[in-house]
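Task card 7
Instruction: Convert sequence to structure tokens.
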Amino acid sequence: MIDDKHKLWSEFDECGEVEIRQRLANQVYGESKTFAVKAWLQHRVSQRSEAAMSEQLSIARDSVVAS
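Output:
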């Protein structure tokens, strides 16, 4: 099951987020794959949020050190 998830997510990574969103909107995927796509997309959003927060913390630390 985990290997299937990694295989699917690798496939999604290769296609890219824009393509996967288009396929999802066009209802290309069946029910189980749609669930996996939505989980992958949520993971991508979470990664961006974490990266943004990390960058904000870094900027805040730099400004404190510079003060």
